[in-house]
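Project standup — Tuesday

K.O.: blocked on the structure for the chain from last sprint. Re-posting the sequence here as requested.
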Amino acid sequence: MENAPPDCPPSGSPGTRGRVLVVDDDPTVAEVVVGYLHRAGYAVEQADDGPAALGRFAAHRPDLVVLDLMLPAMDGFEVCRRMREHGPVPVIMLTARGDEEDRILGLETGADDYVTKPFSPRELVLRVDSVLRRARAAAPADGTGPLSGGGLSLDPASRQASRDGHGLALTLREFDLLAFLLRHPGRAFGREELMREVWGWDFGDLSTVTVHIRRLRGKVEDDPARPRLIRTVWGVGYRLDLAPESPGTEARPSAAPAVPPGGGRSR
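H.V.: unblocked you, prediction finished:
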C-alpha cells in the first residue's frame, strides 16, 4: 500500500463531501486512509475494533464505512451485520487476504464493495466516491419514475422495492442493479457492462456482479436455482425477462452474440 502523502491537491475542505467512518486495527493503514480521505474533502472518524466502531456509528451516523475484515473482538462481517440492522449504510470492506470466499462473504453480508490489501489509497478514495455517488442518487438522473414489471415494483425516489406487494430488503447495489434491469427488460448485458453502468467502474473484479446477481435472485425468484426473471444468457451475461419462459430454461441467443472486451461469460 502506498504510504506517502498525497501529491494531489485536496478536492475540498474536510467534511464538505460527507462523513466516513474508518475501522482498522492497523494504525499505519488507518493513518494513511484517514489522511487521503481528509485530503479528498471527507470528514473522517476512526475506530480500531468492532465495539468502538459500533459506538461511533450509533453516536454519529456516517455516510459510508470503510471496514477492515480482520478485527479484534468482533470481525468485520459481524460489525457489518449489526450496522445494517439499523438501516442501510454503504460499506467498503478491506481484507488482507485475496481469498474469493472472503470477498464473496463480505458482499453477501451486505458490503457494497471490497478492497484487498495492499491497496492504493487513491483507488480507495475513488471507490468511496463511486459508492457514495450511487448512495446519494435517490432518483435516476434521467428522471425515470416508479418502475414495475413481472410482479416487481421499485420507487427510485423512496428507494423502496416490492414483489407481488411484499417488501424487498435490498442493499444499495441490489436496488440499483434491479432498477437498471427493469429499465432495460429483455436486453442482455455482460458483466463488464453491468459493472460500468451500475457500479460506475471501468475496473474491478467481475465476481462482484456475479455475487449480486445471485443475491438478487435469492430475493426476487420463487426458486433461485431455477430463475425465471433474471436469466443467464450464455456467452453474454444476464437478462431480465418480464414474460419468462418455463422455469429453469436458460436463455441462449439465436445468433452468436458480440462478447464485450475481456469476455462476458457468467457463472
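K.O.: great, moving the ticket to review. The helical segments are 27-39, 50-59, 76-84, 100-109, 121-135, 172-183, 191-199, 207-220. The first strand starts at residue 19 and ends at 23.
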